[in-house]
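Researcher: For the record, we're logging two predictions in this thread. I'll number them. Prediction 1 follows.
Model: Prediction 1, sequence and structure:
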Amino acid sequence: MKQITPTPSPWRHVLPAIAFVLTACGGGGGSATAAPAAAPAPAPAPAPSNSWTLVWSDEFDAAAGTVPKAANWNYDIGNAENSGWGNHEFQYYTSNARNAQMDGSGMLVITAEKASNAGPCWNAKPCDYTSARIHTNGKVGFTYGKVEARMKLPSGQGIWPAFWALGTDLATAGWPKSGEIDIMEFIGKTPNTTYGTLHGPGYSGAQGIGKPYDFGKPVADDFHTYTIIKRPNEIVWQVDGVDYHRLTPALLPAGGTWVFEKPFFVILNLAVGGDWPGAPDATTPLPAQMKVDWVRIYKEN
């Protein structure tokens, strides 16, 4: 299977979760001045399957302006001083409702927008954009199973949405020993393509083991489902139910270490700029919106 090395994150990342462990449910609150436009109708609930059992999901069914549930999601804040989340990104992440809220039609909308004096950036200047990065560290996680999200991605030069996972031992092991699974990354300068990539000791940053999925048309035109299936010593990537990438310890480069037999937590974010996508320009549609219909975790029967 052909492997490529796109230039995803050197460590654009955060902290620790659990393994198919769910804490008590709770709701988020808050409202913004204006809700984003309603999205198309959500996909139907998952059909029963003999292979998979749904163990956790966030369907984002809440009133317009409601923020992500505190029982499920934490926020990363800022620009990661001196690094821009390890990638010289231009956004300042906030917990403001205008950057992450429900649209009232079953969607979580993460919005990146132009902002003045949003907060300090890595280049010792104020960041030019705000956005949101949320994660399930310490609240919801998985060791094995199927993890997927249905999303509609924004387009444009310099736009970088992602759906990914980090090992819960990040705070103690550090990156890349903690492991990183990029379930889906998209950059505006390759409008027909998303990427699935693995990072670990000996194959991180620009040496991550990745593969593109070419839609043959603009990714941002419609909703798609992005999935990993994680089994002992195997990770499989899917788009809309189709396998396109698979890795096992035997497929790592010489000297690489497999660090994925442990719990991981989930992250959703919308970055602006960075070493891989490049800077936004006059053609970049802003504000940019990443619409998430649902995130689901299944166990294999």
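Researcher: Logged. Prediction 2.
Model: Prediction 2, sequence and structure:
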Amino acid sequence: MATLADLAELVRAPAALSVPGDVIAGAAAAGTLSPRTPALAGASVLLYWAGMAANDWADRRLDAEERPERPIPSGRVTPAAAVGLAAGLTAAGVGLAAAVGGRRAAALAVPLAATIWGYDLLAKNTAAGPAVMAACRGLDVLLGASGGGVTRALPAAVTVAAHTWTVTALSRREVTGADAALPMRTLVGTALVAASAAVATPRRAAVLPAVLAGWYAARYGAAQVEVVRDPSAGRVRAAVGAGITGLPALQGALTARGGAGLLGMAVAAAAPLGRRLARKVSPT
């Protein structure tokens, strides 16, 4: 029988620290931060974990060759248990979003769940994979804005989606390594993402968003520079991990840009915590 540690590894539990900030940044951008925001963030985490479990179930045969230490190919979690967990977490995530946010939240949670499963089962190994994963994160940001003013959260959603595209594009070379052109492209993307997050609205102070965006760019950008120098599989995996664990700093910048400075700093604080936890359970 699978242990909690096995299931935590299956869903890449520490990587979930990169998820609540999506919803918070969306709510801050839309001006809809409220007591229901933490519950929507919880729904987002459940859907993220569902996607991780479904991902390993879909990749179980490939992982048997490339990553035999993963929970399913190693025999610690059965395929039936993995797909059952993925389905249960999906239902719980959509149900929680609908319970706290009503039809508006459900109208975003349902397509978000469908896009997650679509990525895992259909799009992941196609040219559309990075774009579909980026759409997942963009929808997650909009879930936070589902109380109203969704259009106001679109710039934040596009920014997080663009970051996600860079991470996903790199992740496709975690086993084989990459050519130097790929990290050069993602590095340019990271610079544009950071610049976008640093630009405050005319009524907001620009210092804190710029500081947090700079922190994000420095951490994730440095890892990509290492891939340019040495595009081996190990360096690529390190860059992907930096992209995942560094995302809260970007989300914090977007939250601060929405006018919630203290909350933005709290969101960004998940970045160093995620890096420490990633040493115990890999986020990639």
